## 1
Amino acid sequence: MTDGLRVVVDRDACCGSGNCVRTAPEVFDQDDAEGLVVLRQPEPPERLHGAVREAAYNCPAGAIEVVEQRPGGAA
Amino acid sequence: MTGMLETNVPSYPFGNDGLDPLLPHFAENGDGVGQVRLPTGQLAFLFTRHDHIRELLRSPDFSSDFTRPGFPLIRPLAEDMPRPDGSLIRMDPPEHTKFRRLLTPEFMIKNMRPLEPLIRQTVVDAIERLRAAGQPADLVEHFALPVPSMVICHLLGVPYADHDYFQECSRTLLAWKTPPEQARAAIEDLRAYLAGLVDKRMREPGDDLISRLATERLATGELTVDELVGLSTLLLIAGHETTSNMLGLSTMVLLQHPDQLRQLRERPELVDDTVEELLRYLTIVRTGLTRVAVNDTVVGGHALKAGDGVIALLSAANRDSDVFREGEEFDLHRGSHQHMAFGFGIHQCIGQPLARAELRIALGELFTRLPALALAVDPADVEYRDAVVFGVQRLPVTW
């Protein structure tokens, strides 16, 4: 079984650079009013894990956290 | 770090001598951190490693406010330099957060897409004017400078007819040789010009950024007129100078790498990776980013005290061999997603979706429409700008 992955975003920390939307548009969006990160899917499928980790690494504000989860739900 | 002999302290900034950024001795030997001496005589700590700079620019222990004690000034300021209202690159949270959020939606990727036909038309028209100018022609004058200027004018609602004036002010402001008093006069001229425009847009709004802020954010008290003028000044300068320099330099680099240029022409889908690699390789903010520590803190294991000035040398980080193998080589297949050409931290370039769209469209059209484009000058004789932002002065080309 593969490990799961949960994404947590911090809109207070977000600076709206849009890097995450460019890197993983299926997982991240920006709202129209302030341009802050909107999470489209908190537990993205495995094929998106690479892009999500890259988005977290490249987030200039450090506003994206990736929580690796073991099978069975334990974080 | 503090025991270093003063005679070993290099003077900073290093200057623009060519495509390879000048790096201090401690960038390659040692741990990548060392002291430099600024034009004011002050010492500052220069960071060159990718991981250190990521940590530094994300840290809340540093301020971007140049009026704070200890702030590392890379050029002397006029004594009565006015405080730059609305210049968000010099603000800290929570003030910065408020201003940034007013602007972010304007530059979001999804809001840049509707602008792409206008960018493409601007590019195509500029190529036609370049052709009409006759060979050889200066690519900077006919293409690299007008394209981003026209696009940012459209976005902000600044009449492009005034371009000679604001480009001249901006050039004076950014040239190293400009004395502090004259730099202050140039920024005041630009602000006065934009104050006139803001006043006009308050009365006769159009469909543009300055009009939107003037009609929606002044009455609510979210912005003052001075702040709107400051924001507009910053966006006008940043919106045309940076992309313009990238276009001139990028054309030169691609022409010097004919194999890679051929691959790009054969496979236009490589343009996104090409743009990222050009951003990394060129890193036109050669002077790095300046900050002052506001708390005692640690970066990359180095202890810093409140009041210490620090500089993040982006051009060194973008060639750090731990992250970019053979980073001194231009390689459009590299997939340079980790570069920091737009900076890092909460001040990372707000206009990066616009810059990427302009570079992608402009370079794509230029090399498609002018298949025989060539330098009309020996690359060794290309003159670089003596300016805060790295670029070429002129780029004579034939086609």
## 2
Amino acid sequence: MSSSASVATKKRKASTPTGPVVTTVPEHTVEIVSDSGEGAQKCGQIFGAVSARMGNGAWTVELIPAEIQPPARSPAGASGNRIRIGTKPVTNWGDAANLVVAFNEQVLAARHRLDALHEDAIILVENMWATHDDEDIRREWVEVMEELSTTSYRIVEVPMEEQCLTITDNPRRGKNMFVLGLLSWIYERDVETVRDLIRLQFRKKAAVVAETNIALLDLGYQWAQEHLDFRINVPIEKPSTPMIVMNGNQTLAMGAIAAGMELCAMYPITPATSVSHYLGEIFEEFGGIVHQAEDEIAAAGVAIGSSYAGKVAFTVTSGPGLALKTEFIGLAVMVEVPLVVLDVQRGGPSTGLPTKVEQSDLLAALYAQPGDAPKVVLAPATIEECFHMVVTARRIAEAIRGVVIVLTDANLATGVQPFPRPNLDARWQAAPIDLSPVTEGVKPYDWDPELGLSRRFIPGQPGGMHTLTGLSHDELSKVAYDPESHERGCAMRSRKLAVLQQSLKPPEVYGDPEGDLLVVGWGSTKGAIEEAVDKARAEGLRVSTVQLRFLSPLEPGLKEIFARFRKVGTVEINYSDRLGDPYITVENRRMGQLAFLLRAHTLVDVDCWTRVPGQPLRPKGILEGIKTMLPGRPS
Amino acid sequence: MTTTQLPQLSAKDFGSDQEVRWCPGCGDYAILKAVQRTLADLGVRRENTVFVSGIGCASRFPYYVSTYGFHTIHGRAPALATGVKLANPELDVWVITGDGDGLSIGGNHMLHMLRRNVDLQIILFNNEVYGLTKGQYSPTSRRGFRSPSTPMGSIDNPIAPGAFALGVGARFVARSIDTLTPHLMGVLSRAHEHKGASFVEVFQNCVVFNDGAFAAFTEKGIAVEQQLHLEHGKPMLFGKERNRGIRLRPGSIVLEAVTLGENGVGMEDILVHDERDHAMAQLLVAMQPPQLPIALGVIHCDPAPTYEREALAQLGSTPVAELDLNALLRKGRTWTVPG
């Protein structure tokens, strides 16, 4: 109950001359929530970054409302960050928050109602609302405090506004730095590192801006020191190699540069756009072009046109954009022009959940094209993999003269995680295209009859003149509607994927190589699934997991791996029907998208446990899913 | 670029070994011939030339020239061509499109390619009908046009391609007629010479689905009275006797056709064509027979910096292959945790 907590705080303050109690924990999860626009995200990003820089394991997730400026003090507008820090590397956002800083009681209530808070969570809440001039606001405050009175949260009221007013006349723009100060004291962060990051944040503004923010930081730190009786120590184990700290979209951008990409064609779409922003900050220096096209379709067209003419090009988008690019992707498959498409998935269908995570573009990536259009689909499982996957995608696209779609998601896009700093390898860059004159008789599709692979030549190359076409064609790229030519073209374009699959290794199983249940995941769920599997195994359940990076072609050896488990089930962030729901039968049940794919390819009766909460899956939830899928239980 | 003497190519050298599959009597044949002859006259290098097209009868064009070509998807040729030019500005790119491809499904891309001023030539074959799909009305079909999809007549107002191009900021807009070969070749040469997006509308007769659509100004006998052949710096005269002219109706911004010597009209009243005059260009493209002759030739030409040149000028000079990624990974919002 707030008032008593408040009293208790004061009491403790008076009675703790010996200093705060320091609790040492292996990990802690912090949430900072505010109205949109109050800067909780900035505060959270810096807190996460400084924790990672100091050597803690860290994973941050943005809590984003869909609108830029939702109404103030509304639960739907809760915006901010969750930062999970640990002594060991952290691979997902965890289950419940251990400490929450809330800029008003409404956004706090929103997190409470979403079951996002640990039952013993410590809550630091701005208390200006309790005594606000507006009677309605005072009443709302009381209502929320009553709602929370049945919980065992420990609520500490903090006079953020009042304190910030001593430094700035616009606390709305500065409270986040005060809060950063609070957190820096509580978690024993290195304040000089925090100050550096604030300076970096405001480097393009007048120096006074950074200094004001630093003053607010110091004020928060000092207030915490004087008023709080607890500190939390998450011990640091310094990593043995230099680490780099980035979010997934930034990592994709860096990966694009490392891969030797020369042109990024895009159209603004959440949550993918920032890839091009990060890229734009540095790309031009290296001769790279970010081209904002007139629409998603044109972005694909510009990328294909550039690739056709010899530049290493990619396009970046999210679900609705992927849908619009469908026909152009089909063209790239048909004419065998290398193309990399990055799809930062969000919730769908249609406009769906623009800012929120989902893994529901898998089948669209694979099968959206009318006609048979085989292409490669990859899914990085961690932020680090976002970097290397772009390199892999580029290399595959060129090696097979084809389309590679990389599926990340909103969780990876905005999540921040430290990972070992890559060292540039020249082989990551594209080899220059052979521009020598084309020998007479070499065909535009000189398919190796077994491999389906062929050399590509580009405009400007003497002797190679030909017309590419989206129509069915023969080796000479001449329109050919006869049955043999069409069969052959389809076979050659498909064969390349089989050849690629032969070069892949079977995936590694996490846990025992045999057991009762094998959980199969793909993409960003890896960390949460493995944590859930660890918990299940600790309970004695015979569960293992495997995370797939190649969705098309699938990694080899799956049937063998599956055969060693009594049951196989996927965990995914997309929609599947649940048996037992009205009208749902085993025949009409909509399956998770990976489950659908695995069933088709392996003939194994793969089950699935999927959810579409618009947020990353929590290990606790996945553990429940594991239990429902364990053989002998109804799913 | 190499300075070795190149063999002189003829129009025939720009033909391909593919059988041309347009309907007998289609205006496209004449345009193809004019383009091949123009390419030969210009002495372009086949390997540096790319024809990019969308979908439609006109868009089969790339098959019939011996350069590089790309028969893409419906309406999207401008986007793809923009990518080609960004990748390699040295390539000589021609976009081939039709009224449906370029102004209906691909109108958006056409708009943006023109306003960006990508350095390429666009030939829009305007036959005011969908040919490949058998005769439906197009965005340039006139009101009342009966077609399988408009059995009671079109109620859409047609778009004027030239006015559209001028409206979205094209710096080169020209017009010709399929069978008017020498004129068309002159226009194509000018389009090629122009640095930037060169928009050429060609009135092209579809013998099967819209025969005679342009008869009002192409029929023998009346053509000379209904065509105004514009030349920069020359008075706007037309007619068999060259005694008809265009002037601004006194006290207005409306064009009218007048006869020299009648009602006190003298040469001083006749407008002199200035290709850089954007406002006049808009009046000229709007002229419709029989009240006014159709304006042909280079209606507007006012060069401006090209998109790809400006894009490349913004780039740094470090080749991607030489970049120091490790330095990059320490920049801006990235940092490292000392190991």
